[in-house]
Amino acid sequence: MKLYSINTGYFKLDGGAMFGVVPKSIWNKLNPADENNMCSWALRCLLIEDGNRLILVDNGMGDKQDAKFFGHYYLHGNDSLDKSLAQYGFHRNDITDVILTHLHFDHCGGSIMKEGDKLIPAFPNAIFWSNERHWNWATVPNDREKASFLKENILPIQESGQLQFLPVVEGTSFNENISLTFAHGHTDAMMLPVINYKERTIIYMADLLPSIGHLPIPYVMAYDMFPLTTLLEKKAFLQNALSKDAILFFEHDPVNECCTLQSTERGIRSKEIFKLEEL
Q1: In the chain, at which end, N or C, are there fewer CB atoms within 10 A of the end residue's CB?
Q2: What's the whole-model pTM score?
Q3: In sequence order, which residues have a C-beta less than 8 Å from that of residue 196 and are 6 or more positions away?
Q4: Cβ pair 58, 108 in contact under 8 A
Q5: Which of 230, 277, 279 has the alpha carbon at shortest distance from 44?
Q6: What are the counts of helices (DSSP H) followed by strands (DSSP E) for the chain?
Q7: How far is Cα 231 from Cα 23, in angstroms, rounded to an integer?
């Protein structure tokens, strides 16, 4: 089994939205904002080579949207999904499985590509894995969240016949090395892969903890649908991850890929910070 960090670029989001009630005088030290209060965030995915399966966790925001869309989110940097896959000798056609943690555009936008006027799966040989509870939440979105659930990213997956659902049961096994934990504060039924790798536990954080800067319990995104649920989930998750000496893999941290945890007088914080390839 091998793991690869797949960088698909960076994008910008409002710093206040990313840190919720935390004052800018504090969060700006963690991720400095530009003159428009926007901070850069990574679109970092995870590739898992396990036997004859090549599993991609999330796939960034893609590049099929119009100029107006990218004018809001400022996709930038030299990385792309294809370039990052090629760095390790892979092509998108090699992907056998795509685990979608949730269906916000910055996590699943790369699932679908344009071919002329058609919207087709970007991974023609892959099964796309979601869960029915989150799928229903995303395809009939609430007014607050619907700007993050773009039909052109989601519905063509189902229309392709390549979509399958996993049960929303804590500890659901994806295969012998990957299980799933679930979080419901950011959006309903978000799936976080838990990977056994080199006798360690690695957890793909998606939007439960977008970055190391979000480790303090009150640092909850304004994007979260149920912030009090996120608070409870973070507390329980961090205690459990600390007890297992787990490694956290960050999808959106612009600088830090992975960390372990330690208990401090200020709460649970990062201990060792490193890149996945250093394991």
Answers
A1: C
A2: 0.97
A3: 177, 178
A4: yes
A5: 277
A6: 8, 15
A7: 18
Burial class (CB in 10 A: 0-12, 13-18, 19+), 161: exposed
pLDDT for 126 = 98
Q: Which amino acid is at 55?
A: I
Report the distance separating Cα 74 and Cα 40, nearest Å: 9
Query: In what helix (H) or strand (E) does residue 249 lie, and over which residues does it extend?
Result: strand 247-249
pLDDT interval class at 227 (50, 70, 90) = very high
> From the CB of residue 269, how many other CB atoms can be counted at a distance below 10 Å?
15
Beta partners for residue 264, in sequence order: 267
Nearest to 154 by CA among 62, 222, 71, 68: 62
Question: Which residue has 């004052």 as its token pair?
Answer: 23
Q: How far apart are the first and last CA of the chain?
A: 13
Helices (H), 126-196: 132-139, 151-159
Q: Identify the DSSP state of 246.
A: P
| Percent of the chain topping pLDDT 90 | 98
């071919």: which residue's tokens? 115
Tell me the HSE value of 59 on the side-chain side, using a 13 A CA sphere.
27
| Helix 132-139 with 151-159: angle, nearest 10 deg | 130
Q: How far apart, in whole angstroms, are the C-alpha atoms of residue 193 and residue 14?
A: 27
Q: What share of the chain is helix, strand, coil (3-state, %, to 5)?
A: 25, 35, 40
For the chain, what is the radius of gyration of the CA atoms?
A: 18
Tens digit of pLDDT for each residue in 104-146?
A: 999 999 999 999 999 999 999 999 999 999 999 999 999 999 9
How many Cα atoms within 13 Å fall on the side-chain side of residue 96?
8
Block residue for tokens 């007890």: 243
